[in-house]
Amino acid sequence: MRHGEPISQLCFNSRCDKLVSYGSQTTKIWAIPSGQLIANVPNPDGSRALTITFTENDTKIIIGSDDELLRSICVDEVEDRWHVMNHRLLQEKDPVDGGVITPPSCMAFNSNTSRIAVGYSRYPLSVWDTSEPRLIGRCQPTDGLMAVHRMSWNPVSDHLVGLCKTGSVFKWNPLDDEYQEVTMFAHEIQVSPDGKLFLTSDSNGTVKVWSFAFFSAIYQLSSEDLVSGLAFSPNCMRFYDLRWNTINVWEPNSLIRASETGDIASDTASDYQTSTSFSHMSEAYVVTNDAIIAMATASTSMLFY
Fold first, then answer.
1. 164-191: b or e for each residue (b if 16 or more CB lie within 10 Å)?
2. Could you say which of 78, 143, 150, 259 is the most buried, measured as most Cβ atoms within 10 Å of its Cβ?
C-alpha cells in the first residue's frame, strides 16, 4: 500500500479489516489484508490532524486537528470532504494565570471517543466531552503550567498518562483531579490495552515498563538507538518499539507474568537477557550490531562471511 505522501496518523478499526492513513494532502481508507484502496478524501486546508480513530461501530472516522476542530467522515458513504462536528468544541477562551492559548501540541481520544484530551505548550491540559461542547476538567499542578507533548488514555480507568517537556511523567484523573508525577525526561508513552501497564522511551534509547497502579517502573531495556514509536500486543505479553526503520519485538518476563497472573513485580530471570537488580526494577541492555553490507558464501562448506 502506497499513500504517496508523508503520513502523520495511522489507525486500524476494531475488526482490523480497515486501515486509515492521514497524509499531508489526503486521507485514504484501505481494506485489510487485500490492501485495496476504498476511499481517498482531501484533507482540510490549513490544518493538521493530531489524532485519528474509528468510532460508532467503525462506521465513522474522526480527527482532532491543530486548528482546534473535530471533523468526521462516514466510512461506507465517503464524501469529498470532512465535516466539522461542533464549532464550539475545544474553543478555549478562559484565561489562566501565566497561560497563553496557542495551537494544540497533541490530542488523544479515550477508548470510546466520548472524551478528548488536548495538550498545549503554554496552557493547561484540557479534557472535553465530545458529545457536547463541555469542558470536563483542566490539569493545573501547583508548581506551574504543563507543556504536554505526549499523552495516552488508560482504556479501563479513563486516567491520562503523559509527558511534559519540562521533564516529568504524570498520571491524572480528569473527574476527581487526582494527580501524580515523577521527574523524568521521556519522548514517547503508551498504555497497555488492559490498563495495567504503560511504556515510556527517552532520547537515549531506553524503554521502561511501568505499573499503572503503583506508578513505578518494573522493567528497563537500554539501547543506543532512538525510539520513535511504542505499542503493546493485544494480549499485553509483548511490546514493540520502532528504532529508525526497524520494528523490534520484546517479551520480558514482567509482561508475561502480569498478563497471566496480574503480578506486576519485576523480572527475576530472563531466558534470553541478563537482568540485574536496580531499585526493584529488572534491567536489560541491547548491544547494537554493525550493519552488514557484504556477504560471501563458501561453495564447499556451510560457512559464510
1. beeebbbbbbbeeeeeebeeeebbbbbb
2. 150
**Which amino acid, residue 13?**
N
Model confidence band, residue 273 (pLDDT cutoffs 50, 70, 90): very low
Q: Are strands 148-153 and 60-65 parallel, antiparallel or unpaired?
A: unpaired
Instruction: Identify whether 33 is preceded by a cis peptide bond (ω within 30 of 0).
Output: yes
State how far the Cα of 262 lies from the Cα of 55, in Å rounded to an integer.
Answer: 30
C-alpha cell of residue 185: 525526561
pTM: 0.84
Q: Interior CA angle at 52 toward 47 and 56, to 5°?
A: 125
Q: Which of 288, 287, 268, 270 is nearest to 278 (CA)?
A: 268
Considering only residues 236 and 224, tell me which one the structure prediction assigns the higher pLDDT. Answer: 236
Alpha helices in 205-275 (DSSP H): 253-261
Give the tens place of pLDDT for each residue, 38-96.
Answer: 999 999 999 999 999 999 999 999 999 999 999 999 998 877 789 999 888 998 777 77
Residue 15 one-letter amino acid: R
Q: Residue 103 and residue 106: Cα distance in Å, rounded? A: 9
Measure Cα distances from 280 to 55, 138, 237, 276 in Å.
40, 34, 20, 9
End-to-end CA distance of the chain: 35
Please check the confidence at residue 266 and state whether its pLDDT lies above 70: no
- Provide the β-strand partners of residue 60: 55, 74
